[in-house]
């Protein structure tokens, strides 16, 4: 059957215990187009694409691929049907090189015979990368590549599966502006080659620049779907959050910086950081910027004790301190939300409540026993303040959307009386309404004479 649509999802409904995640959702994606899917954290975007990818099964509705009714049984079945995914967490094996990552689990698809044909795999990988206009070192473990290069490896892996539909989930979240421009050139090349792209992002300026059509989800329902040329940024935002967001960056309160809270002198780490010095004061917001791989994250992780300090002096309120571990940092009233959310910011298999109270759990205990009533009260307070969408405090964080996981990573530090807040990409994976809330929280920290380092 000839059709203009590469994928059609009609009347999709999905329920989880205590949650109606999707309610009669329609999504129609035209062939060879870039179709944006946006919405607040927990709106249902991830659930919808996981149904398309065979990770979840729908409760109601139907799916058509190229006009034919189909059931996507599992991720392998999705790949056979020409659907590939580039997830926000790239899921590369860090000690494998690009060739091994591109063909992992599909080694027998390349070459002939019963034995692994690495030469054929390498040749095919080079062909794919050349077709995308990419030049990267395919011989080194991908852990040595930049984040942008790792993104390209993930894209090459998806396209090596003879895909006709590619779903990209927050592909620019960890990239610099230069790397984003490189990715956009690649995406447009894929479009010219006839690949259909479903593009998910909280960066709405990207949506306006890149996509042909946008569909907005809110509370598991489609509230807007239209060609991008017919919409403004304000219309998209208002349909997402249900209200007008007049200013994404709230006005900074007029605060005069106070006493010095943190100073760093001559800091060196094992390989990247060289002679870093800085000073920050109460009531001050200090911004740190640079390209991916420039050392921003390594600096804040060293300050918090995740990484070894080879040389240099760290002072808290004028007193030299030795921070050898995150435990030491917490003792000195430092708080860190790291860039690596799943690896370092949250315990993915722990509950929402367990994650939120973890940094100050000792304050909720008496005579060695944790007061569960206090745990519930404090966790509920922070869930409400950060508008974390979860069916209960007992829900495991692994089942929350990426944006709500990020909110949990933020919320847990607001329950302790830290003097210095170190936030590394704090709005990563956060929708536009939640971003404004986080900026407001930063202003509240500053007016409370807590230092905020971003």
From TrEMBL:
Keywords: ATP-binding, Cell membrane, Membrane, Nucleotide-binding, Repeat, Translocase, Transport. Residues 7-244, 255-453 form the ABC transporter domain. GO terms for molecular function: ATP binding; ATP hydrolysis activity. GO terms for cellular component: plasma membrane. The keyword Methyltransferase does not apply. It is a peripheral membrane protein. It is found in: Cell membrane. This is ABC transporter domain-containing protein. It comes from marine sediment metagenome.
């Amino acid at each position: 059957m000839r059709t203009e649509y590469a994928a059609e999802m009609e009347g999709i409904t999905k329920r989880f215990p205590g949650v109606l995640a999707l309610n009669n959702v329609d999504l129609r994606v035209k062939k060879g187009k870039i179709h944006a899917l946006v919405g607040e954290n927990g709106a249902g975007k991830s659930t919808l694409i996981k149904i398309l990818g065979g990770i979840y099964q729908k409760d109601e509705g139907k799916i058509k691929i190229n006009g034919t009714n189909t059931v996507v049984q599992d991720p392998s079945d999705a790949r056979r049907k020409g659907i590939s995914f580039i997830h926000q967490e790239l899921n590369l094996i860090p000690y494998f090189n690009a060739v091994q990552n591109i063909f992992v689990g599909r080694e027998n698809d390349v070459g002939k015979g019963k034995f692994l044909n690495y030469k054929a795999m390498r040749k095919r990988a080079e062909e794919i990368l050349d077709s995308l206009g990419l030049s990267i070192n395919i011989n080194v473990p991908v852990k040595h590549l930049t984040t942008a290069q790792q993104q390209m490896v993930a894209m090459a892996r998806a396209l090596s599966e003879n895909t006709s539909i590619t779903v990209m989930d927050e592909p620019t979240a960890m990239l610099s502006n230069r790397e984003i421009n490189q990715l956009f050139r690649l995406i447009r090349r894929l479009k010219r080659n006839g690949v259909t792209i479903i593009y998910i992002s909280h960066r709405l300026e990207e949506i306006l620049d890149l996509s042909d059509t946008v569909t907005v989800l809110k509370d598991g329902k489609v509230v807007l779907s239209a060609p991008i040329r017919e919409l403004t940024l304000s219309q998209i935002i208002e349909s997402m959050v249900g209200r007008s967001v007049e200013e994404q960056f709230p006005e900074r309160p007029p605060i005069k910086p106070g006493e010095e809270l943190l100073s760093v002198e001559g800091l060196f780490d094992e390989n990247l950081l060289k002679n870093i010095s800085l000073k920050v004061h109460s009531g001050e917001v200090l911004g740190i910027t640079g390209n991916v791989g420039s050392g921003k994250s390594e600096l804040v992780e060293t300050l918090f004790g995740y990484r070894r300090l080879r040389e240099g002096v760290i002072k808290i309120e004028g007193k030299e301190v030795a921070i050898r571990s995150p435990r030491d940092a917490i003792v000195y009233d430092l708080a860190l939300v790291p860039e690596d959310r799943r690896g370092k910011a949250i315990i993915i298999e722990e509950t929402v409540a367990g994650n939120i109270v973890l940094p100050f759990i000792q304050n909720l205990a008496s005579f060695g026993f944790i007061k569960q009533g206090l745990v519930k009260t404090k966790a509920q307070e922070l869930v409400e303040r950060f508008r974390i969408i979860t069916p209960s405090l007992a829900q495991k964080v692994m089942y929350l959307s990426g944006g709500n996981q990020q909110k949990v990573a933020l919320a847990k530090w607001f329950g302790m009386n830290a003097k210095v807040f170190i936030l590394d990409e704090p709005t990563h994976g956060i929708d536009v309404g939640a971003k404004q809330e986080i900026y407001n929280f930063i202003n509240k920290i500053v007016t409370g004479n807590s230092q905020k380092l971003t």
